Amino acid sequence: VKDPSHLTDDEKNQVKNNVDNANKDKFPAGTDVTVGDDGTTTVNYPDGSKDTIPGDQLVQGQKGDTTDAGNITPTVPGDKVTVKDPSHLTDDEKNQVKNNVDNANKDKFPAGTDVTVG
């Protein structure tokens, strides 16, 4: 969903349908499922009893809500670059470090990832 704390009517209907479909052979006839703004779902049974399912068990934010940096832990290259002055790398040394990091993570980094060496 776009915003897990404020579901749209379409998103609420999707959650309701998912709960209904997952329990189609379990719910007695006349069972009513309602979905709140945060996805919290209440199952009201014909006998007056009810169950509540917390929204965080049924909905999650879209993938765009998480960052690549939060999902990827870069691999530190095994080969260290030998430099003259570790406090002041030359441009060639920086490029060598950058290439080592890029190569060590070529299967991890998404397209467009930029590695910068300070």
Automatic annotation (TrEMBL):
Residues 59-74 have a biased composition (Polar residues). Residues 1-60, 73-118 form the Atypical Rib domain. Residues 30-43 have a biased composition (Low complexity). InterPro entries: aRib. Keywords: Signal. Gene3D superfamilies: 3.10.20.890. Residues 1-118 are annotated as: Disordered. Residues 1-14, 81-96 have a biased composition (Basic and acidic residues). This is Atypical Rib domain-containing protein. The lineage of its organism: Bacteria, Bacillati, Bacillota, Bacilli, Lactobacillales.
